[in-house]
Structure formats: structure tokens, C-alpha cells
Amino acid sequence: MLYTKRSYRQRFSQRDMVHFQAAYKDTDVDIGIPRQDFKPTVIAAAKKIIENYHRQLSAYIKTDPQFGRSLSPCSPLAVAPEIAHRMAEAARLAGVGPMAAVAGAIAQYTAIDLVGADKEIIIENGGDIYLHSFQPRIIGLNTGESSVFNNRLGLKINQQLCPVGICTSSGTVGPALSFGCADAAVIIARSAIVADAVATAAGNIVRQAEDVKKAAQFAATIPGVLGAVIIAADKIAAWGKVELVPL
After folding, report:
1. Which pTM value belongs to this model?
2. 175 compared with 110, residue with greater pLDDT
3. Strand 184-189 and strand 225-232: pairing?
4. What three-state secondary structure class fits 187?
5. b/e code 106-137 from CB counts within 10 Å (16+ = b)
6. Domain count of the chain?
């Protein structure tokens, strides 16, 4: 996984950013915005946005249960909210079910609704990140206590890549569904929605440690993907606009 919430803030203190949590039911995000832009009212606004998208998706899934349970691409109904259509399109590109993109979608939609498309923000939702930064940022990689790479590598994201999604899937860390054994399948993409879906698909490819290269090669074929880092056991593969730094 990517560093999240408190562990992220402790290891990579961003003095220029104010971090706070916003949660609704099973969605719990960490948000960082520039100190000069922070006001207490922002917290309530973020919670309201998250609740709105959670309610939209929950109501739609009641109408279209297949959307919520499918593990392969499926087309949403015409009445589906925009966020569901974006998730379905990302899932089609990656060859997974649309809910594989939900965390990245919530992060991206919340960020843009909260501050707009042009301002700095970082939103982390269960290890999936939407980032718009005007300076380089380092995102730590958590690959689990048994991994030789755990807490030893970070992704340096330069401002030229932003806005960008950095999402991860793991078969060994955390509760997310994965059919593979990757300790971390991290995808960098123009869209956090696409990054989330492709991370799931890439993680599913890793059935043994030697499959890390295959998973990275797969990610390279998906439009909008900028880079990939795949880690399993003592194997690591990287492709694209990836700058790994020691922690």
C-alpha cells in the first residue's frame, strides 16, 4: 500500500499543508491542502462531498446490483451518475469490475469538488491518492512487514506530472480484494480512477514473484497510465515515469 493517514504525515511532514480527515460510513479519507487555503469550514464541506458521492453510488447499486458485485467490466445504465460511468470506463480499460475504481474515483471527485481542478491538494482514500502539487512530493511504499522493501522506498512525484493518481493494490497487505500475491502493485496515471482500476488488474496478474515484470508490461499498455511499480517478495519491476528514492 501507499503510506496513509497518520503514517504518511509522520514520515513525510508537509509544513506547507494542513491535513485533516473526512469520513462517511466506510469511506475515510485524509486530505491535505495548502495552509493558506485552510479554513475550518473546509472539513464540513469535504464530508458533505464524500457523503454525496457515497449516496449516489449506493442508490445506483440498488437499481443495478450487478454494477456493485461484478468482477469484470459491465456497462452502467443510462440513469447512472457520472461517477459510475467514469468508474465503468476505467474498469473496461483494465478488464476488472467497476468497483475496483471506487476509491480512486471518490478521491478524485472529492478533490475537484472541494478546491477545483487548478489548486493544490492531496487526498488519500484507503491507500489510493489523487495529487495536485506545485512542488515535488514523496509517497512512501508500504509492502508489508515480511517484505524486504517495506518502508524503504518512496515514489518521487514531480509537479510536472500533476494532477495525477497514484493507486495501489495488494494481495498481502490490507483488506482489498486481489487474486494475486503482489505486495504492492502501484500505478501512476493521469486519472486516479484509471490508476485504481489498473492497480487491481496488475495485482491480479502477479501469481508468483516472477510475474512482476508481466504486470508492469500490462500496465504499460493502458492509455493514460504513466508508470508502474510492482513488488512481490524480493522482486520488483518498474516502468514509465517512475522515480524511486530511498527512505
Report:
1. 0.92
2. 110
3. antiparallel
4. strand
5. bbbbbbbebbeeeebbbbbbbbbbbbbbeeeb
6. 1
Q: Domain range spanning residue 48?
A: 5-246
Residue found under cell 480527515: 21
Question: For the segment 194-235, what is each residue's pLDDT rounded down to a tens digit?
Answer: 999 999 999 999 999 999 999 999 999 999 999 999 999 999
* Residues 6 or more apart whose Cβ sits within 8 Å of residue 37: 115, 119, 120
The four Cα atoms 133, 192, 187, 196 give a dihedral, to 10 degrees, of 150
CB burial string 156-193: b at 16+ within 10 A, e below = ebeeebbbbbbbbbbbbbbebebebbbbbbbbbbbbbb
- The three cell numbers locating residue 111: 478533490
Supply the pLDDT for residue 28.
93
Closest CA to 1 of 174, 244, 180, 163: 174
Strand partners, 235: 232
Containing 191, the helix (H) or strand (E) segment is none
Which residues contact residue 244 at a Cβ distance below 8 angstroms, ignoring those fewer than 6 apart? 153, 154, 155, 156, 229, 238
Whether residue 139 contacts residue 3, with contact meaning beta carbons closer than 8 Å, is answered with yes
Q: Is the pLDDT of residue 5 over 60?
A: no
Amino acid sitting at position 236: I
DSSP for 7-59, written as a single string: HHHHHS--TTEEEEEEEETTEEEEEEEEGGG--HHHHHHHHHHHHHHHHHHHH
Residue 92 sits in a domain whose CATH number is 3.10.520.10
